[in-house]
Amino acid sequence: MEEKAASDNPQKTFTCQLCSLTSPFTYYGQKPPNTRAIVLLEECFITKDPFSPDREKFLVLGSICSLCGTYVCVGSVRLAECGTVASSPLSYI
């Protein structure tokens, strides 16, 4: 499998629809890259931890509400359109 340089891939951006937090992300899913035994309970927007040289460190930016489809960040405390507070994994990380 051929690896692509970062310049070959357009930068993907996550934007919270509740607080307008915007951040680039490197992965969307349940199994972050370069991790061994970590599987998140729900699909999340993931980015590499910019404060750690360890390749296995990552930050969860947010996810998509499974009830209303709203993009919500981990730090958002307001309610989504459906009236439900974001649940796992956002509540536990």
TrEMBL record:
<dbReference type="InterPro" id="IPR018785">
    <property type="entry name" value="CDPF1_dom"/>
</dbReference>
<dbReference type="Pfam" id="PF10170">
    <property type="entry name" value="C6_DPF"/>
</dbReference>
<protein>
    <recommendedName>
        <fullName>Cysteine-rich DPF motif domain-containing protein 1</fullName>
    </recommendedName>
</protein>
<feature type="domain" description="Cysteine-rich DPF motif">
    <location>
        <begin position="14"/>
        <end position="76"/>
    </location>
</feature>
<dbReference type="InterPro" id="IPR042426">
    <property type="entry name" value="CDPF1"/>
</dbReference>
<comment type="similarity">
    <text>Belongs to the CDPF1 family.</text>
</comment>
